[in-house]
Amino acid sequence: MKQKMDDLGYVIQPVLDALPDNLRGIIMSVSQVVLKGLEEIRVRQGRPLMVHSHGRDYFLCRNGGVTRHLQNAYIVSANDARRILELISDYSIYAFEEELSSGYITLQGGYRVGLSGKMTSDKKGTPKFQYITSFNIRIAREIYNVANKIIPYAVKGNRVFHTLILSPPQMGKTTLIRDLARQLSNGFPGFSGVKVAIVDERSEIAGCYQGMPQNDVGVRTDILDGCPKATGIIMLIRSMSPDVIITDEIGRPEDVTAIEDALNAGITIITTAHSHGLEDARRRPILKSMLESNIFQRIMVLGNSLGTGTLERVYDPIEGKELLDLPIR
Amino acid sequence: MIIKLISSIAIIVCCSFLGFHMSYRYTQRINNIRDLRNALSYLETEIVHYSTLLVHAIKNSSISVMGDWKPFFHEIAELLEGRVECSLAEVWQQSLKALEHNPYIDKAEYEIMQRFGLQLGNSDKSSQEKYFQLAQEQLKAEEKSAREARVKYSRMYYNLGIIVGLGIAIILF
Prior knowledge:
The structure holds two protein chains of two kinds.
Chain A: H1 2-17, H2 21-28, H3 32-36, E1 38-44, E2 50-53, E3 56-60, E4 66-67, H4 78-88, H5 97-102, E5 104-106, E6 112-121, E7 127-138, H6 151-154, E8 155-156, E9 159-160, E10 163-167, H7 173-186, E11 196-200, E12 221-225, H8 229-239, E13 244-247, H9 253-264, E14 268-274, H10 278-282, H11 285-292, E15 298-303, E16 310-316, E17 321-322
Parallel strand pairs in A: 10-14, 10-15, 11-12, 11-13, 13-14
Antiparallel strand pairs in A: 1-2, 1-7, 2-3, 3-4, 5-6, 6-7, 8-9, 15-16, 16-17
Helix pairs in contact in A: 8-9
Chain B: H1 2-49, H2 54-64, H3 70-81, H4 88-96, H5 107-119, H6 125-172
C-alpha cells in the first residue's frame, strides 16, 4: 500500500491527515488510476463516501474499491464527520471562525475543504454553522506556465499592464493569475521580476496556511490572506510598496475605489471578474463603470472553445482594438 | 532504656510527619488550584485573543503552569502533536485520569476540568470565553472553600500529629 501511495501520497498527505483512520485507509486503498485523477473527496454524513476523479464520481467500498452500487458503498457515520471537523480545524474551531462563516477551511498544502450543513446566524447577523455534515475536500493542483499565453499581452518590456481577466466559473482564472503572479514575481527571460502583492480574500490564489503560502506564488510576492479586497489593496499600497497588486473576483463598489487608489499610487492592478465576455460585463453596473472609466489597459476573456481555460479574446480598451486574432490555449 | 528512647523519638517524628502531611494537603491543594487558574487564564488569552491553535496554546500553557497540573497539560500537548485516533475530549479525559487519585487535587477540581474538557476547542471564541469564565468561577469558589478548610483543619492536623506522637510515646515509656 505504501508503495502505491509513494507517487501521489506526498502530494495529498495533508488531505490524508485530515481524515480519520478508517476513511484514510479507504482512500489509500483506492486504485492509483482513480487517485491520479482525484479532484474531490465528498464526505456526507449518512451517505456514501465518494470521490470525483477524471470527471466522474465513484462510491467507495470499505476495502477501497470503487463501485456504482449504493448498497456496497461505505456510509459515512456521524463520528466520521465529527472527527474530520476536529482534524481539519486542528481541534480549534475558534481559530477558523471567519473561514467557517465563508464555508471553507484551507488545509496545509493549500487544499480547501468546502463545508455545508445547518446554518444559523449570530447577533450581528453573520452566518455560522450549527451542524457541519458535508465536506468537499478539493484536490487542487498547481499548473506551471499556464500564464504563458497571456504574458505577451499583459507585459511589454519591463512594463506590466493593468489587466482584467473576464471568465465564467471553472475556467481556471485563479490558476491563471496564480501562475501569472509567480512569473511576474520570479521574472522570466526578458523580464527581471517585480514586487507582487496578492490580496487573497478566500485563500484561493496562494492557499495560505497560517499565513504561509502553500502554492508557489513567487519569491517577490507578499500575501494578505483572508483580507477583504478593498481593505487589503489600501493596506498593501501603504505598507508593502508593491509594483503589481493581484486580486481575484472584484465586484463590489468599494473594490473600484481601492483600485483607483492603487492606480493613483502608480501600482499596476491585475484582477479577475465573473463574466462570459465583454458584453456581459458591460451589463453589470460595477464592471460597467470600471470599463467606461478605462481603468484597465488589457481585458482578457477566458472560455472553453478549445478546452478549459482558452484565451478567447484580448482587448486594448484604450486604443479600442482587439489584440488576439484567434483563440489560443 | 536507650531502645525505648529511640522508639519514642521515632514515633513522635512519624506521627508529626503524618500530621504535617495531612496539613500540607490543604496548602498544596490551594497552590494547585491557583496554578490551574493561571494556566486556564493563559490558555484563554491564547485562544480568545490570539486564536492560537489548541495544540500550541496548550503547549505554551504547559511551559508556564506549575505544580501537579503541569504533567497533565504537557501530556495533552504531546498527544495532540502526534496523530491520535480519538477525539480531543477522549484525550483530555484519558490524561486527566492520571490525576484522579492525586492527594493534592480534590474531586471538585477534577470534575470541573472533566466538564471543561468536553467543551474545549469545539466552538467559536465567544462560547469558548464563556466556558473559560465558568471554569474560572467554579475554581475560584473551590479555592475559597479550600482556604476555609485550611484555616479549619491545617493547623489542627499539624498539632494533632505531634500530640498523638507524644501521647503514644508517653504511654509506651
